[in-house]
Amino acid sequence: MKRALTLCLTALLGLSLTAPALAEILVLPNGKIEAARLHKQPHRGMTMQQVRKAFGAPLKILAPTPTAPHYPTINRWVYPDYTVYFANDSVIHTVVHGGGAPAGHGQP
Question: Which domain of life is it from (predicted)?
């Protein structure tokens, strides 16, 4: 049993090392979570400057999320169809809006 578990964990680790690094992108319509991708969207690793150049100015820049001193500052930019999350200056996630008002509208 222990050997089988070790073999499975080793296989999963090997597969995870070969997978491409992509941001997790989610749609949340009516509370249902589904993976989604837009034809063109910011991807993990892009800088704020690259996102602004490629996608234009966001509708809204939300206040940075406070974090512990040893963690990066999380910034959020709201676009019509998605919200981009940055750790310091780099994209870490793009969350696709599921419908209605973009996420973050009405928030400080």
Answer: Bacteria
DSSP 29: G
Residues 6 or more apart whose CB falls under 8 angstroms from that of 77 comprise 48, 51, 58, 60, 61, 62, 83, 84, 86
Angstrom distance (rounded) from CA 53 to CA 60: 16
Domain tally, the chain? 1
| Closest CA relative to residue 40, chosen from 56, 29, 60, 28 | 56
pLDDT, one tens digit per residue, over 43-100 is 999 999 999 999 999 999 999 877 788 888 899 999 998 999 999 999 999 988 875 4
Residue 11 maps to a domain: no
Which candidate, 20, 36, 81, places its Cα nearest to that of 55? 81
* pTM attached to this predicted model: 0.59
Q: In terms of residue numbers, what domain contains 63?
A: 21-96
